[in-house]
Fold these 2 entries.
Entry 1:
Amino acid sequence: MAAEGSGIDPMHQFLVEPVLGRHLTLYGYDISFTNSALFMVITAAALWIFMLGGMQRKLVPGRWQAAVEGMTGFVSNMMETNIGPQGKKFTPYVFSLFMFILFANLIGLFPLGIVPGFHPFTVTSHITVTAVLAFVSFGIVLVVGFAKHGLHFFSLFVPHGTPWPIALFVAPIELMSFLVRPFSLGLRLFVAMTAGHILLDVFASFVVQGLNSGSGLGFGVSFLSFVMIIGVSALELLVSAIQAYVFALLTSLYLNDAVNLH
């Protein structure tokens, strides 16, 4: 967060900046290691440590192992429920997707702004990141659909039993609905994470401005704003988990369409 006068700039937290303080270029291309890349590495490292610590295969699992097994079982059951037995082959991808988004969302909520010159960065608050995740998932759906069904995959856009005169109108609508999927998938996660972080910084600005005012009313506003920060933070924790789940769930449903042509 960056101070501007007595307030806080709520958009500064989304600024992509070089970690080393200056841009590095190579043949005209910016190759700087940014805060966005840094937090992706931190997310990947945290996820690796979480999985490594839980893959001990003890006969009587500890809390760490139970947490990892619970996560893997949760995603595995979701894939089997939504796709069927053929969903097992896609479980590693959807599990990785779910866990990466979940860890990225949660790490972005850590109160790292108390460290001078440092602020947390939520990689899922950037449409470029969420769009890449969405389009990779959509690409896998297309590859699976055409590899398994060939041109018969286009029957997905014509509901079974639809008379051909009506199919002429239904097919374009179904096609457009299908093509919009990656955009809505990436946009949903981006908007949810961005809105929550802006709201937290707005209330933080109220706290700073209220304390700087030195009046009783200002202290009251600061206190109420601080209470709202606690409430919104708790809500953001819930939203972080829900958005990761929704992203994984929709991906599994889209894969189900490609596998079973529903």
Entry 2:
Amino acid sequence: MKLILPKEHGAWAMWIAPFVIGVLVSKFYWYHFVLFISVFFAYISISPFIQGIKRPTERKQMWKLSFQYLGIALLLGLPFLFFFPQLIWVFVSIIPFFFINLYYAKQKKERALLNDLSAMIALTSTLLVSYLVGAEAIDQSAITLWIINILFFFGSALYVKTLYREKQNLTFRWFAYLYMIGLSILFYLISGFYLMMAFLFSTIRGIFTPKDTPIDPKTVGMIEILNTLWFTIFLSLAY
């Protein structure tokens, strides 16, 4: 069995960072590592499944790999489903967003903002998964943290679009600026210093990124990795 790893760096961050945050703000157990591997295989099963939809001639091969990955994920995840049955409701709740992603993949419109948002909602749910295993319950703090993660990654998606697809759209650019500035102010008023700091890197990055000079996607990816690390640290400190 070979591994086909998704190339979208942002998508990796969208599930790994929330998973880590869920561990940091609850309680760490050694079996979080097993859970992480299970989620990893569940995540990489998505890409070949979608490729099978987009490329009918490769469907059999791609779907075979997808179900192999999913089988490993289920094998490792079954003990967690037994001891933490709430996980089933987490998985059921994100299924509609998976179908939205499949729809946009079939239409070859993966860059649509609604598709991005659907992916964020599904991927960031790993926070609920790791939090539940650490705290043995999904409480109001878990839901709040999940929403905060969705808001953060949506801001990242807006930022990237201002550099490429919406580069000439001044209205869209100002919307992206005001979105991040507004979140920084809102969370400072609600929670104080640390939560405001979690969004500060995003705000400064968006405003001071050069608009007339093309930026290499690899550079943008590195900036987003640093931004996600910053967000993870300060959000964890806030809780």
